[in-house]
UniProtKB/TrEMBL annotation:
UniProt name for this protein: Cytochrome C biogenesis protein CycK
InterPro entries: CcmF_C, Cyt_c_assembly, Cyt_c_biogenesis
Every Cytochrome c assembly protein domain range: 139-343
A Pfam short name: Cytochrom_C_asm
Sorted UniProt keywords: Cytochrome c-type biogenesis, Membrane, Transmembrane, Transmembrane helix
Homology family: Belongs to the CcmF/CycK/Ccl1/NrfE/CcsA family.
Superkingdom of the source species: Bacteria
Residue stretches spanning the membrane: 6-29, 78-101, 135-157, 169-190, 223-243, 255-275, 295-313, 322-340, 360-378, 399-421, 441-461, 473-492, 498-520, 541-564, 669-691
Cytochrome c-type biogenesis protein CcmF C-terminal domain sequence ranges: 366-688
Length: 701
């Protein structure tokens, strides 16, 4: 019965989404109210000079159209439709989760990806894995941001409610977002309705993919779809600005929270997925440049570019057209990435041709929505001119160049992702675009991007001078050169690629720290106290600096671990010791154990450092009988010297157990850098929320 309730809620989501698109349309509101005014008496309210609100009647035909401010009053129940959408999305998601929890195999979606022996946590996670389950989660996230956007727009509109342009922007944004929710709901019903039943239910399910039976996989999905839902809000606000021919600082201020929040959510999904792959496959063996990875990377790259361009638009009201293009394209690549991962286009060609409904509705909705939005962007392009030009040596110019390079990186990744698909459809040839292609093409773009990143925070708005730039960057240049010389002399045989990575990491780190130092200790007008100077820098500057430092730390850790990595592969017997870096591993043997839905061969290693025991590691080889799949789980130790990976294989020809040990120095820097980047974005979000509750603003510095 709950499944039928969820199906009914999904139908209501479609109807309510399209209803919101119509009811919040200012064109519809204008026409309906004008018809009312011309057809029957209407009571309008006007506020007198003494604050008294008299009532008066307007009858008969209207000789001149009333201003938009007097035609519609602020809707007292503007949250009814968004709240109804959220409630129905919660009901649909709860019904689907209940079906997985109780193992209702009359639903094909449950029977295909779950089993009665699957642990409860992974049964819940399995609800997000198939196409229909993922789309329900996306609809839930979209309904949630729909409510938040309504509260943000109409709550902020209380102080500026008399401005027609603001109200038109708000209504258009809500209308566009309702349209997106309706299209997604309709695509879910057509392509992968999760609530369809079969007449005869199987006795049990096929079981969950063992690779998906991971806590990190369960955590990744909410972050991914919250990020995509945030991109929907960015798209709605951008399209609303284009519809009203008003893309200015007001929109940039409204976009601030959503751009940073989407960037953080997508970045968190990438970080979780990276560590998940790292823990399962070991460093260097995760799925580089896979379709699923690229579909997550593409919107994050464009959102990163949008973070910088939005700041320029808010500060100087320039880069209007480029910012609008990024606002539309971020959701476009995210939507297209979802389509690629949910469809089977990268499967065997004959099997793909045999599938009649391969996410066709999702693709049709994508084509219709973004064809219309890009056409509108083309028509409005001439009206988004720059009011005041800026010089080449300026912060606007550097941030624009950075965003263009990020967009070029996204374009290369997109081409590498879809090129095998296009070639296969043209001549039937199957090829794989791997790491060498991306490295060879992206290095000439990434290196200048990282080099310019050190300059951007120190440049002045509008115009700067070369000699002043050199003076400000002198300390950073000296320190980065010292780092490169030290590493190259200490490791004379080091290849150029990691040396360039370490040098760029040192450049970004020293540039960020030297700029922070200068702002704290070389600005006497900031106040007598250095703590006061730190306060006056503002949370946005601090979050930006923290994100840049995090990127430098991550880059340094990745380059160093690739340079100083040690790998040992031996055929070990019980009691044998294995040396890797400063650690010594003693192999104790393998035990056969039973898990909840798998059987495992679990090895035991005692880890020593300088002859002192540190911990025990338990790498495994798991066998899932339901799917007949075998997986390998590595044992990992995160030490202050680096990460130690231990994995086991089958028995060798000599009867010993094949053991692979990797020591990755400075590998914790990679994860620390990711955490610092996400922390910087989180600080900006929390500060924005706090200031909103305090009814206060913050400067655009």
């Amino acid at each position: 019965m709950l499944a039928e309730l969820g199906h009914f809620a999904l139908l209501l989501i479609v109807v309510t989404g399209f209803g919101q698109a119509v009811l919040f349309s200012p064109l519809w509101l204008r026409s309906s109210i004008r018809a009312t005014l011309q057809g029957r008496p209407t009571v309008l309210a006007a506020t007198g000079p003494n604050g008294i609100t008299p009532e008066f009647n307007v009858t008969g035909p209207v000789s001149a159209p009333l201003p938009f401010d007097s035609q519609i009053s602020r809707p007292g129940h503007y949250l009814v439709l968004p709240a109804g959408l959220l409630l129905m999305a919660i009901v649909a998601q709860a019904a689907l989760l209940h079906a997985f929890i109780v193992s209702d195999f009359s639903l094909p979606i449950v029977a295909n990806v779950s089993h009665s022996s699957t642990p409860l946590l992974f049964r819940i996670g399995a609800a997000f894995t198939p196409d229909g389950g993922a789309m329900i989660l996306w609809l839930l996230a979209a309904s949630l941001v729909n409510v938040v956007l309504a509260m943000q727009l109409f709550g902020a509109g209380q102080s500026t409610y008399g401005q027609d342009d603001d109200r038109t922007l708000f209504y258009n944004a809500m209308s566009v977002l309702g349209l997106l929710v309706g299209v997604l709901g309709l695509a879910t019903l057509i392509d992968a309705d999760p609530f369809l039943r079969v007449a005869v239910a199987p006795l049990d399910g096929r079981g969950m993919n063992p690779q998906s039976q991971d806590v990190l996989r369960v955590l990744r999905e909410p972050f991914l779809y919250l990020g995509l839902a945030g991109l929907m809000v960015i798209y709605a606000l951008t399209l609303s600005g284009l519809l009203g021919c008003k893309f200015d600082r007001r929109i940039a201020e409204t976009l601030r929270f959503w751009v940073i929040a989407s960037w953080v959510a997508l970045g968190a999904a990438i970080a979780i997925n990276a560590y998940r792959s790292y823990s399962q496959q070991a460093w260097g063996n995760w799925w580089y440049w896979d379709t699923a990875e690229n579909s997550l990377l593409l919107p994050w790259l464009l959102t990163t570019a949008l973070v910088h361009c939005r700041a320029v638009l808010e500060k100087t009201e320039t880069l209007k057209g480029w910012t609008a293009f990024l606002g539309l394209s971020a959701l476009a690549v995210g939507w297209f990435g979802v389509y690629l991962t949910r469809s089977d286009l990268f499967g065997p060609l004959n099997e793909t041709l045999m599938k009649p409904n391969d996410s066709i509705a999702l693709l049709v909705g994508f084509c219709a929505i973004f064809a219309g939005s890009y056409y509108l962007f083309w028509r409005r392009g001439d009206e988004l001119g720059e009011p005041r030009p800026f010089e080449l040596l300026s912060r606007e110019s550097s941030m624009f160049i950075n965003s263009v390079m990020l967009a070029l990186i996204a374009a290369v990744v997109l081409i590498g992702t879809i090129y095998p698909l296009v070639l296969r459809w043209l001549d039937g040839e199957n090829i794989t675009v791997g790491g060498p292609f991306y490295v060879e093409v992206l290095v000439p773009i990434v290196v200048p991007l990282l080099f310019l990143m050190g300059f951007a925070p120190t440049l002045r708005w509008r115009q700067d001078e070369m000699w002043m730039i050199g003076r400000r960057m002198k300390l950073a240049a000296i320190l980065s050169i010292i780092i490169v010389l030290f590493v190259s002399i200490r490791f004379i045989d080091l290849s150029p690629a990691p040396l360039i990575g370490i040098g760029l990491a040192g450049w970004i780190l020293t540039a960020s720290l030297s700029d922070l130092w200068a702002r704290l200790w070389r600005q006497p007008d900031h106040g007598e106290s250095k703590y006061r100077n730190l306060q006056l820098l503002g949370p946005r500057y601090l979050s930006m600096t923290l994100a840049h430092i995090g990127l430098a730390v991550m880059l340094a850790g990745g380059a160093a671990s690739s340079v100083w990595e040690e790998q040992v592969v031996v055929s070990a017997r019980a009691g044998q010791s294995i040396q890797a870096g400063p650690y010594n591993l003693q192999y104790e043997g393998v035990a056969l154990l039973a898990g909840e839905n798998y059987a495992t061969r679990q090895a035991t290693f005692i880890l020593y450092r300088h002859a002192l025991p540190v911990t025990e590691l338990f790498p495994e080889i798991r066998y899932y009988p339901i799917r007949g799949v075998e997986t390998r789980e590595a044992g990992i130790w995160h030490g202050r010297d680096g990460d130690l990976h231990v994995s086991i294989g089958d028995r060798g020809d000599d009867g010993g157990r094949v053991v692979s040990v990797r020591f990755l120095p400075m590998m914790p820097w990679v994860w620390a850098g990711m955490i610092l980047m996400l922390t910087g974005g989180t600080i900006s979000i929390l500060t924005r929320i706090f200031l909103r509750f305090q009814k206060n603003g913050v400067s655009a510095s």
